[in-house]
Amino acid sequence: MMLDHALTALDALFDPTRLLALFAGMVVGMIFGMLPGLGGVAAVSILLPFIYYLDAYSGLAMLLGAVSVVYTSDTITSVLLGAPGSPASAPTAIEGHALAKEGQAARALGVGFLASMVGGLVGSLVLLFAIPVAGPIVLMLSTPELFMFALVGLFFASSMIGKDLAKGLAAACLGLLLGVVGPAQAAADFRYTFGQVYLLDGFSLTIVALGLFGVAEVISMLASGGGISQSRIEVASWRDGFIDFWRHRWLVFRASLIGVLGGFVPAVGASASTWVAYGHAIRSAKDRSRFGKGEIRGIAASEGANNATVISDLVPTLLFSVPGGPAAAIFLGALFSFGYYPGPRMITQSPDLMFLIVWSVALTSVVGALICFAITPALARLTRIPFAIIAAPLVLIMVVGAYQSTSTMGDIFMLFALGGLGWLMKHGGWPRAPALVGFVLSGPMEQYFWLTNQIHGWSWLMRPGVLIIGSIIVIPLVLSAYRWVRARQQTMNGVVEDVPPPPSETSTSSLGLACVLACLVAVMFVYALWEMMSFNPTSRLMPALAIIPGLPLALWLVIRGVREFQNDFATDGAELKILAALIVYAISVWAIGLTAPTLVLIGWMLWGRAEMRLWTGALYGAVVFAIVWLLFDLLRGDAPSGALISLF
Question: What DSSP line would sit under 52-65, residue for residue?
């Protein structure tokens, strides 16, 4: 019976109209996955108006085509530009971008594409066999266990990247604090809005991700000049990706299973499971010295996990009408509009649809990876193009992606303000990935934390599931403390043990900027603590979870920074000038609108930084400017008109 339904669904999918719809969605998903700040949600949103002109199977196949390949194609942006398209791609950006700078971009892309394909296939297989039995498993997880799972993901993000655990944990607490800005989930409070209407809805994930990673990387690359890679990349170097993938195939498979389990948890998903998989890659490696500096195993694990998670997100969506993420929420709305109502009975009432979903995901996972492999050599050569040429459209696409959040100037100001914070974190030795993951997990963590305390009080801390999950955090901390004590004893006895350094997001760190950043974050936590006292008691839970550990950590980093401070502000003045230029651009857009400042920015980057020829730069700049306006038109948004212009 199951085989009959599977064959019927496959035959339905291979109808020419439905197959065309599937591949059209896949192409849109790949394009938007490669554009920083747009990603899967934007791709599905763009397609949503068109699916209602199709039958149910064709419309849903189009959406599935877009969702299935976003994590595959955003590997390109993560590796070549160091700007992750989503928090789940942050490990790929860290490891892959480091490899790209060494001239091994094609190798990193190859492993990423293959791991994404395997993750998609594993996710689709699990979707096929797990849905009938996943209901009881998911129902076994109560809010305490869900909260602890999110906490484990945040801990892995904090401890796996960076030379300093204190900085990693402080960055995670900072991300949690950014995530609680806006409305409280459990009470009628608006937190840390400073009376600004713009902040009533909190910060946008798109803006936080692009600011901390994208803008900061653009500033550094523009200042350094040249291409992304300093050495020539051979077109055939992607072959190394196949070899590395085969060498680490079981790691990819294990990471895919971790991603599948993460997808079962609503609203947490890829952000946590990717870091758990990345942590597994580190802990299972004999040599950990390359992690954070360009380790191919980190890419294999993270890409296998995030692609498997985005597929298994559909399990809670189809079983309980609880979407695992924003894209799954849009897919859920499409199911309702076509007359399908998710739930346990959907398995028996609409088996053909279930198999259609499985076939669609599997097919696009394979075809999407093959297309990415076909264009890998050309993409690898892009790393030798002067970055200033790429920076012009990249910055403007970031602006367009950020502006879609609320369509106000606050989006653009916040993009570059967080870009400045990301730049400080990069040069101060603070890992940015924990801050991004903390921001993403703050919402579901607050929901689970509040429900847990309402239902169980504090007795939940003794639940067996909580203790088991919590041991994933406690045991590594105890082992680290033991190794630290033993190392100090050996040092006092004159014995020095050769311990490989932990993975680091960047090899350059300024003691002066680290001290400035620690002072800034400490002030933020002190103010947050003072204002938290005026909140409703239920609104204090999540801010307190960020502030109570975050403030002592920040103060410790201030004290340590002052003690180590040697008037060291080792950073390139050119980077400060570029950051200032981007801030001036944002102010100019606010004052006189998008057109004139954008033309000046394009001209400055192409002729001032890239030193292009006059007519070549003019033609290329015109194309970039036209694409920016086309994006505004496709996203059905109005460009900023300028506050001063509107007065006349």
Answer: TTS-HHHHHHHHHH
309-321 average pLDDT score: 70
The token duo for 175 is 């991300």
pLDDT beyond 90 at 470: no
Provide the domain limits for residue 614.
574-647
Which of 532, 564, 596 is the last residue in one of the domains? 564
546 with 600, same domain: the answer is no
pLDDT, averaged across the chain: 77
Alpha-carbon span 509 to 504, nearest angstrom: 10
Q: Are 245 and 115 in contact (CB under 8 A)?
A: yes
Inside any domain, residue 515: yes
Confidence band of 45 (pLDDT split at 50, 70, 90): low
377 and 432 share a domain? yes
What is the rounded distance in angstroms from the CA atom of residue 184 to the CA atom of residue 398?
28
Q: How large a percentage of the chain has pLDDT more than 90?
A: 4
Asked, for residue 569, whether it belongs to a domain, the answer is no
Q: What is the pLDDT of residue 233?
A: 52
CB distance 58 to 18 below 8 Å: yes
Give the CA-trace dihedral at 150, 154, 160, 161, to 10 degrees. Answer: 150
pLDDT in the model for residue 507:
42
Q: Note the pLDDT of residue 145.
A: 78
Nearest to 88 by CA among 191, 183, 213: 213
Per the CB < 8 A criterion, the answer to whether 144 and 455 are in contact is no
* Distance, CA of 278 to CA of 111 (rounded, Å): 14
Tally of CA atoms within 13 A in the half-sphere of 250 that contains its CB: 2
CB 538 within 8 A of CB 184: yes
Residues in the chain, total:
648
Instruction: Judge whether 537 lies within some domain.
Output: yes
Mean pLDDT calculated for residue range 307-326:
67
Decide if pLDDT at 134 tops 60. Answer: no
Grouping H, G, I as helix, E, B as strand and the rest as coil, residue 183 is strand
Is the pLDDT at 136 greater than 70, yes or no?
A: no
Element counts in the chain: helices (H) and strands (E): 27, 2
Contact 39, 74 (CB under 8 A): yes
Q: Are 424 and 344 contained in the same domain?
A: yes
